[in-house]
Amino acid sequence: MALFLLPQNIPSGGAAGIAILVESWFALPHSVTIWCLNFLLLLLAFRWIGYKCSFKTIIQ
Known about the structure:
mainly alpha
């Protein structure tokens, strides 16, 4: 991704694609956006599938 997609600002799927779009719209670094999106998705996973299953998913 770092070699082909990010330099040309081509959005891929998932959090990385959203980060590229946010970087081009708001001039935020894509690394910060990816960290924030992943943290948000982790919180949603804790709420939706529960803490026990989420921790098992992270560990495995």
